Amino acid sequence: MNPISRRWLLLLVAVLSCRTTTGVSRKAEGGPIVVEAPVIPDTSTFLVRVGIARDGKFHMRANSFSIWKDGERILSGKGDFRLRFVRGRPARVGYFEILSRHQDMGSAIVDLKILQESGRRVRLFAIGALIGPVDTREFLLIEGPYSSLEELKRRGITDSTRYLRLLVEPPSGEAEVIYGKERVRISTPFEIRYSGLLTLVDYREYDPLHGSRRLTRKYPGYFEVWTGVEGKALTLVNVVHLEDYITGVLPYEMRPDFPIEALRAQAILARTHAVSNYNRKLNLLIRPYQLTDDVFTQVYGGFTSINERVLRAVRSTRGQVLSYANRIVEAYFHSSCGGSLESSDVWNLDLDYYVARADNSDGVLLDLRDELSVRRFIDNPDPRAYCSGMRDSVSGSLKGARKVFRWSRFVDADLLGGRLGVGRVVEIIPVERSKGGRVKRLLIVGEKGRRTIEGELSIRRTLGHPGYLRSALFYVEPKAGGFLIRGAGFGHGLGMCQYGAGFRALEGQKFYQILQFYVPGSRIKRIYF
Predict the structure, then answer these.
(1) What DSSP character marks residue 361?
(2) What pTM value is reported for the model?
(3) Can you tell me whether residue 265 is helix, strand or coil?
(4) Distances (CA, A) of 77 to 62, 72, 183, 212, 514
(5) 377-391, pLDDT tens digit by residue?
């Protein structure tokens, strides 16, 4: 069975008679088919599928290329060629409520039988994977299918963490490959294989942080071409070895001129993040890929911006991930913590290895949940904080640390109120903060109403439009015509502070010392050589 067919078998759940990447499905005794998670025993050849772009047409270039469908070569050539969407039929999607989540299948099956005996339409669905020695599997009890999201909302299910979408019937369609005077129509999905790298020329990308933009990038591996789930365009998927993927992530998640020890720490975190998120993102279960090329998972730009320093960092940490208490770490990182690292409560998580602490040599615990503490912290920056940039002989990209360590931004009261539909804003009130000081719940009071914004990212998006506020570690001062926001850091503050790691490396710390500070209690584990 070719990789394309196998991927759709993993996704199809018409009657949950699915196959995993190992081609295995089982029945729980007296119950429905148990959809198992992928098992990848040979991690040395671990391939990941990365969603790159969705559009109606693409321009590509390669030294030599060939088009393959169901193991048969359809077309081959050299240089430039193009793809054009011809027609498509959208997928049919079922909506399922998540009733509970379990770390082991045994407890899930016990609850499954109890619910089935009461007449509920409950099934068992596994996410995550068994990847060599790393087990990220989680077992979901789901009820459905329901025909639409509106039907779930009528049942009071509105939080995206409480439902998932699964394919009942995959999309289908046809694309045209244009090479010189040749025009060949091929039903999707099909593969594009090539020697060296493939250049995707001037394609349109939508990034949650940067919006729509046009890019030209070079990619290793090979490509799969699908009809999009909506049946209206083509979806490009880059299939690459995990190490090549990490190589393409590193210079986009950390500046490639950062010190080598910081780059090594970032490479391990990027690899950990990829493995821990593989087949776990609920929003991607209906897509023919497990990872994206943007901040929804982590930014991947192919081999466009790699240099020798990036290659050294990846090769010297090959196969290494972070674990904690024999489980893979939920690996997070950000640009600058502003001197205050976050606890996992900023996202309402329960992860022991993330605690609110100062990013200095002492690493003292912090509690900035009240307004006075936050104001004092922001107005009296700690020059010992590694991400402050207050060091002698700073060069290259590390010079940017001071710019984001402390910052301010003005928000117009009329414009903000107009976007939110509450009239001119008269008050912006932080209602709840995390231990690291970031705003988790914000009340915006206008002349015609009020709005409560939940979540640090939503708050940053609301106040930073068009774009994002640098961080949710801020306080607000009323000013004529609006509000002045005084803040610290860039990003969510959880996990490794990248500027902090850079300056720690300059000081002589090794990558494992850097990781031990930002993820205390963790251990480096090699999942392949």
Answers:
(1) S
(2) 0.90
(3) helix
(4) 9, 15, 13, 31, 48
(5) 999 999 999 999 887
